[in-house]
Design goal:
Layout: H1 3-19, E1 23-27, H2 33-39, E2 48-53, H3 57-64, H4 68-74, H5 79-91, E3 97-103, E4 118-125, E5 128-136, H6 141-162
Parallel strand pairs: 1-2, 1-3
Antiparallel strand pairs: 3-4, 4-5
Helix pairs in contact: 1-6
């Protein structure tokens, strides 16, 4: 794992551990890369509870409780779906905080409304307000996915800083 991911995962872990919180990750376009970055940190079992890789719409619905109506109306790549993924990760785990990502890593699959590199994020937890955002990343499939993992980890750190 590269130094930037290691640093962010270690910092997120230290903040979670200091607060006595456990994290769950709900991932689509990253395919488990957030969980991989987190579990590369020794001792992460103290603050990482579980990961959900929900690549298909069915998995998002069945494993995380994303409403079929949300998927039909907004699409899997939407802040609404990301928010429901994050809330579902908390509800279907023993974690108190969750991060969710869903997007279009490419090289295909984009549209005018949602071009390749579009990624929707959400962070949820009992002591953090549910927040979401959409970002547009540039580069290859791997570069989009790596940027997504970095932004997800930064968002965890920010969420914990906001709610001390």
């Amino acid at each position: 794992m590269d130094a930037a991911l290691a640093t962010l995962a270690t910092l997120a872990g230290a903040r979670l551990k200091a607060r006595g919180l456990k994290l769950a990750a709900a991932e689509s376009c990253t395919g488990g890369w957030i969980a991989m970055a987190i579990t590369a940190v020794a001792g992460s079992s103290q603050w990482f509870e579980r990961g959900f890789v929900t690549y298909s719409n069915e998995a998002k619905h069945e494993m995380l409780g994303v409403a079929q109506a949300t998927l039909d109306a907004q699409g899997a790549v939407s802040e609404a779906s990301a928010r429901e993924m994050a809330q579902g990760a908390v509800a279907h785990s023993r974690a108190q905080i969750a991060v969710a990502v869903t997007g279009i890593a490419g090289p295909g699959g984009g549209s005018a409304a949602k071009p390749v590199g579009t990624v929707c994020f959400a962070w949820a937890g009992p002591d953090t307000r549910l927040r979401s955002e959409t970002r547009l990343f540039q580069g290859s499939r791997e570069q989009v996915r790596r940027q997504t993992v970095i932004a997800a980890l930064q968002g965890i750190i920010e969420a914990l800083e906001e709610n001390r």
